[in-house]
């Protein structure tokens, strides 16, 4: 009986060794396909990611750019913020310019220029902000020369339609040219 037990133990040990050997062999062969599978999975994922990125880039290039009215209004308002307010003629100090928004991307401007205590010139016009040049432009202006008597009553001595441009310089001054006078030099206004 002892012999049978020893044979059984040896047979069991052989089977265990055989199984262990097969298991080790299977483990090493199983690892190699897993590495290949991982490589294939990684390659497939990279290919998919690249395809999706390429598709997204092509879609972005093909999509038209749409600007809404709100974006245009913001651009107009950003430009006018630099102009808005009260300005004064730099050299003689007799001119005063007030710029205020009047809606729809348009801005109301009035300029008063006193020649003396009894005489002044007044410009009133609506300007539009030109986003390409950064200037305020107008062609609907009204120019009037006003004469005041001793009672303070005014008389319009001259009146004409005018057009012109207000340009904001890099140093924060407005250069104003207007068709009321034939001058190659703009009037300069500061805040």
Mean pLDDT: 73
Number of helix segments?
2
Give a short account of the largest sheet.
Answer: 8 strands, antiparallel, barrel
Residue ranges: pLDDT <50 for 5 or more in a row? Answer: 1-11, 13-20, 22-42, 50-77
Over the alpha carbons, how many angstroms does the gyration radius reach?
A: 43 Å
How many β-strand runs?
8
Q: What percent strand?
A: 35-45%
Morphology call = globular
Run of helices and strands: HHEEEEEEEE
Strand order of the largest sheet: 1-2-3-4-5-6-7-8
Plain-language structure description:
The protein is an alpha+beta fold and 191 residues long. The chain folds into two domains: 1-62; 71-190. It contains two helices and eight strands; from the N terminus they run ααββββββββ. It has helices at 2-62, 69-81; strands at 85-89, 95-103, 106-114, 119-130, 135-148, 154-168, 174-178, 187-190. The radius of gyration is 43 Å and the shape is globular. Mean pLDDT is 73; it is low at 1-11, 13-20, 22-42 and 50-77.
List its salient traits.
eight-stranded antiparallel barrel, alpha+beta, 2 helices, disordered N terminus, 38% strand, single chain, 191 residues, 2 domains, globular
């Amino acid at each position: 009986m002892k012999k049978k037990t020893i044979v059984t133990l040896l047979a069991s040990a052989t089977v265990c060794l055989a199984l262990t050997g097969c298991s080790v062999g299977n483990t090493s062969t199983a690892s190699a396909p897993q590495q290949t599978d991982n490589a294939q999975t990684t390659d497939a994922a990279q290919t998919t990611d690249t395809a999706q990125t390429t598709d997204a880039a092509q879609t972005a290039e093909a999509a038209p750019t749409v600007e809404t009215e709100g974006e245009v209004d913001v651009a107009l308002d950003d430009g006018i913020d630099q102009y808005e307010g009260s300005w004064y003629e730099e050299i003689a100090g007799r001119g005063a310019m007030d710029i205020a928004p009047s809606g729809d991307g348009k801005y109301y401007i009035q300029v008063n220029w006193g020649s003396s205590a009894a005489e002044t010139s007044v410009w009133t016009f609506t300007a539009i902000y030109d986003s390409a040049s950064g200037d305020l432009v107008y062609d609907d202006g009204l120019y009037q020369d006003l004469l005041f008597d001793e009672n303070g009553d005014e008389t319009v001595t001259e009146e004409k339609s005018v057009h012109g441009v207000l340009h904001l310089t890099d140093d924060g001054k407005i250069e104003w040219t207007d068709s009321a006078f034939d001058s190659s030099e703009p009037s300069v206004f500061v805040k």
